[in-house]
Specification:
By secondary structure, the protein is of the alpha+beta class. It has helices at about 20-30, 60-70, 120-125; strands at about 5-10, 30, 35, 35-40, 50-55, 75-80, 90-95, 100-105, 135-145. It is about 20% helix and about 35% strand.
């Protein structure tokens, strides 16, 4: 049976943007590279969710596309994992500080259960928002079996 698990974060602060959130996640240790590829929503996607893959050596191109999407107030979607692990999922970064994180890649679970170890993800996510520039206005987690 499949599990759908997600974290939903609303940030508050001055001059919030999907680009500032993306940069904070990257600086905290979240990586765009998974199995030698970068997966993201393309420029002009317009809610089609037609994810595209780029070779891992095209990181600069991916970052430029994300910056361009941010300038156009488009939804930024990018697959990210924590540092050198394969644990992560799809991040949706909305223009003004909302984040949806689908915990879909090598999901960490509490020992002996199929319940997501949400603490593992929060410890790593919250590192990105320790700066006084970000305030977490709300945070929720949902899981469906």
């Amino acid at each position: 049976m499949s599990v759908c698990s997600g974290l939903y974060i609303r940030l508050a602060g001055d001059n919030l943007s999907a680009l500032s959130v993306f940069q904070a996640l990257r600086q905290a240790g979240w990586s765009m590279l998974l199995n030698g590829q970068i997966t993201l929503l393309p420029l002009g996607d317009r809610d089609d969710f037609a994810w595209k893959c780029l070779p891992g050596d095209r990181l600069a191109q991916a970052e430029q596309e994300i910056a361009a999407k941010c300038q156009l107030d488009e939804l930024v979607g990018v697959v990210m994992t924590w540092q050198e692990t394969s644990c992560g999922g799809e991040f949706l970064l909305y223009p003004h500080g909302d984040i949806t994180f689908s915990l879909s890649i090598d999901r960490r679970v509490l020992q002996g259960t199929r319940v997501t170890d949400v603490s593992w993800y929060l410890e790593r996510l919250l590192k990105a928002f320790e700066s006084p520039r970000f305030t977490i206005a709300s945070l929720s987690w949902q899981e469906h079996y």
